[in-house]
Write a structure and sequence with these properties.
- This protein is α+β, with helices and mostly antiparallel strands.
- The protein has 2 helices and 4 strands; from the N terminus they run E-E-E-H-E-H.
- It has a single domain, classed as Alpha-Beta Plaits (2-Layer Sandwich).
- The strands form 2 sheets. A two-stranded antiparallel ribbon has the order 1-4. Strands 2-3 form a two-stranded antiparallel sheet.
- The chain is elongated and about 35 Å long.
- It binds iron/sulfur cluster (SF4) (2 copies).
- One iron/sulfur cluster binds next to helix 1.
- The site of one iron/sulfur cluster (SF4) has 14 residues, from loops.
Length: 89
């Protein structure tokens, strides 16, 4: 399930472009994360990019924390033939 956007979201949109897995989209009232596409940025970066750019504290939370190996397998399934970024897993 990885990361989740809470009701604190002000729908600024800053996080959407940061997600290289295209897991973030605009919902009816707030932005949302597709848990089948979120890898907690494993394979992409050394920290969750959406959390880094979100202007609101505690707006994007882990729900729940997942095993890094499982997250890397998810990333590989989303990006066949690509290599994960160094230091991202
Ligand atoms: S943690 Fe990374 S992969 Fe997950 S939604 Fe945020 S930017 Fe996308
Ligand atoms: S960056 Fe934060 S406040 Fe802005 S849309 Fe994303 S989750 Fe909502």
């Amino acid at each position: 399930m990885a990361y989740k956007i809470t009701d604190e979201c002000i729908s600024c949109g800053a996080c959407e472009a940061e997600c290289k897995n295209e897991a973030i989209s605009e919902g009816d009232t707030i932005y949302q994360i597709d848990p089948q596409k979120c890898t907690e940025c494993v394979g992409v970066a050394d920290s969750p990019r959406c959390v880094e750019v979100c202007p609101i504290d505690d707006c994007i939370v882990q729900d729940p924390k997942e095993d890094k190996g499982a997250l890397l397998e998810r990333w590989k399934a989303l990006h066949p033939g690509e290599e994960p970024a160094a230091g991202s897993f």
